[in-house]
Amino acid sequence: MRAFLIFLFALLLSTGLTAQVLTCYDVQYTEDPSGNSPYAGSVVTVEGVVVAEKYYTGTSATSYGFFISDPEGGPWSGLLIFTNQYHPQRGDWVRVTGTIVEWYGFTEMSPTTSFQVISQGNPLPPPTLINTGDLIAADAEKWEGSFVKVQNVNVTNLPNNYLEFYVNDGTGACQVDDQCFPRSGFSWPSLSVGQNWARIQGVVDFSFDYYAINPRDLEDMLLEDTVANATVRTETTSANINEQVAMNVLTSRILSQWGVASYTATIKIDPNKVLFHGLDFTGTMSAFLPNFTVSAAGDTIVIVYQSQEPINSATDDQILIKLLLEPVSYGEALVQILSFAYDNTPLQGISSGRLLTAIRRNIAWLNIANPNNNKNIFNPALNEKITIEYGCKLVPTGVNTKAIIRIYDAQGRLVSTPVNKNISNALGVESIQWDGRDTNMKLLPIGLYYCHLEVIDRASGAKEITVQPIVIKSVMK
Predict the structure, then answer these.
(1) Are 321 and 284 in contact (CB under 8 A)?
(2) CA 237, 213, 61: angle at the middle one, nearest 5?
């Protein structure tokens, strides 16, 4: 075994440079008075979460695009990907390569040359509350492609022949458009001049010198504020490994006339990635510490708050309560709201955030587990796969770090190299599912194997190495 380990740690890695993966903010932020992206005309690779689709008036059904966003949202956070090839779903985390162009003043990627779905079911960024006048202001460019919302707006102009209408919250009228809806057979709900809408949200596009909010579906338009239409979410939070952190549970505005005085919540976590340590009510809308129970497995938390005093707030994204969490694994851990109710009214508008734990030490990190039992044992003959999470501290210069995963059998023979790529995830953590096949795509026999991870800092040439076992098992008779 000693000779085998010496053999493993003596492996060398050839190096080279690769293009940096950009955020939407990187592409969109500009100080140029024209509003043009600093990457206009350049081929770039961008990552983001899909938040909306876009269709094109007067063209065939193949004229299509989708908006991606940085996970935190806000100004400069969105980008349109114009493509007829790829049709991802909302919540997909994607990596797209293509040319950044200015299409009549609107920044977009077109054409695209490569596309990859990194993960699915990711939380969408919260829409940023803006004024209607922000989209007619001199600095409206910063909202291009972003996911936004306006509140308490009145209709000032009815839909024209292009289905565009205008709303105003008192700061200036902005346009609402239908570019996220398929082209045929669509019509807006009944509108009248002076009609008040509690909320309209969507992605911002730009055409014919106007910025416009594009609802993604009719659920993005809320005519009347009621407690049933309130929204609650866990706020995506950054943390350090094995250190306790407070994650906010945020609520939309709760109007005093609703008479809300209690809430119940059921929250799900993965105890292999994050531990629950309790609640904190300081600086929140909760007047005292709610009761809570934790399941024996440590994965389900039920919170019950009952008060004689009303819960109310005139603004969105107020802290309702804080979850005290401790990440015990690097990467992302979903903190999911399974159900939520104010008094006896269950909410449909619930969404989940993630605990983000970056690797901040110079290590090569491996975490190997069968999704079914969280052990490093699996049976490829039954179509099982094993999840290999891997990572390292990223180089601060923006030069990507290379990772190579090699699988060796118990005799030290190389049987597979499932990973040979650059780590570009901002946390320094990525994952694959290995199907137990060798380099010739043949199923490997039962036995003990070794997963060897080698990472290299391209800026300095420094290497980190780690090894963990994997067991391919047989069917029990």
Answers:
(1) yes
(2) 105
Domain containing 396 equals 360-472
Which residues are CB-neighbours of 429 under 8 A, at least 6 positions away?
Answer: 330, 331, 332, 358, 359, 365, 389, 390, 391, 423
Task: Choose between 433 and 185: higher pLDDT.
Answer: 433
Q: Which of 119, 147, 174 is the last residue of a domain?
A: 119
How many domains does the chain contain in total? 4
Write down the pLDDT at residue 7.
Answer: 39
Together in a domain, 239 and 214: no
Predicted local distance difference test score (pLDDT) of residue 336:
96
CATH number of the domain to which 423 belongs:
2.60.40.2550
Same domain for 181 and 210? yes
For residue 2, is pLDDT > 70? no
Single pTM value for the model:
0.80
How many residues does the structure list for the chain?
A: 477
pLDDT tens, position by position, 239-281 = 999 999 999 999 999 999 999 999 999 999 999 999 999 999 9
Within a domain: 9: no
Question: What whole-number distance in Å separates Cα of residue 330 and Cα of residue 334?
Answer: 12
Segments in 184-319 forming alpha helices (H): none
